[in-house]
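[Q] Does anyone have a clean C-alpha cell version of this?
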Amino acid sequence: LYGFGVRANWGSRMRQDGKIDYLELPGGDLDRVKAFYGTAFGWRFVDYGPRYAAFEQGLDGGFDADAPRAMPLPVLYAEDLEAMQARIEAAGGTIVAPIFTFPGGRRFHFTDPAGTELAAWSER
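[A] Here you go.
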C-alpha cells in the first residue's frame, strides 16, 4: 500500500470533519493512465513509489495501481479518527479495513448500508 491518502504539497486548504477530502481511483497501468489524463486534461502528478500517483484538480486524489476495487474510493477527512469510526459504526456502517498508518497519517475503510466503500483519514 503505497500512497493511500498521501497529499501532494500543492498548497493548503481548510479541511472539514466528515467532508470528502480526497478521491482515490483505480490506476492499473499508471504510465498509461497518467499519459491519458495529462494529455487530455493537462493534469500533473506526484509519484509515491511505482504503484501510486497523486493529483490535484480542485479535489485532491490519486491513482492506486494496486486497488482491489473497480470503483473510485471517496476519502473523508476526520479530525478524530477513532471518534469518526465510532460514529460510522453507531450509524450502521461496517468497518472493512481497520485503522492503519501510511506516510502522512492514518485511515480506515468502511461500507455504508448500501455497500458503498469509503475511507476516513486523519493526519494524526
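[Q] Thanks! Anything notable?
[A] The two ends are 18 Å apart (CA to CA).
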